[in-house]
Amino acid sequence: MAEKVIRPEDSPWMLMEIDWSSLTDGLSIKTFKKGHVFYEQDEASDYVYIVDKGRVALRIFTTEGDARTIITLDEGCIFGNLSLFDDRANSCRAVSVSDEASIYIIPKPQVIRKINEDANLMHNMLLESNRVNRILTKQMELMSFRNAECIVSFYLMHMANLYSEDSSDGSREKRKLTMKFTHQDIADVTGLSRVCVSNVISTLMKEDILEKADGAYILADLKALKTKARV
Fold first, then answer.
1. For domain 8-142, which architecture applies?
2. What helix, strand, coil percent values describe the chain, rounded to 5?
């Protein structure tokens, strides 16, 4: 088996460098505050959305109210397009999770017409769908075969790839996470309980793999964390 590496395409924090100008040209960007719900789980929507700036989480809920964040969409991602081809309700709730999110909102008939006219647009749609499939496959692997320590370490590594800055002190490489989060945030992404996540993070800090300063987490030993993530 080939050596495993941290692959950006497996990250649940999804950033796409895709040109959606064929859909967005001439449209105004609308800005939404944190917590805005674009559509609910099992609710039909008349629009497709493209993230210009900010982050939008796709979440699923049980009838008991338990939640799981499936994917967090960043700049260049499209959502609400799942029902374009089967005309069914959306599978997730879409909610803004950054302080502000700048979003293009496009009526579905307009998107369908553009797809029929532009093969490159269809190609871009398939690229994003392929990325989503990879993310979901990785999540199935983690939930099926990995323990809590491995899962939390895996997600911390991916968070560092997208939302971190160098914080090395000369002795070893360190990465300071620029996106602040709570243990519940990680629990929502991993499917673990908040207590379980707290226990893992506490262990990582005791082992000097993880540090915290000024309210931000620092990955103090990337090699050790990668070993924990089993990649």
1. Sandwich (2.60)
2. 40, 25, 35
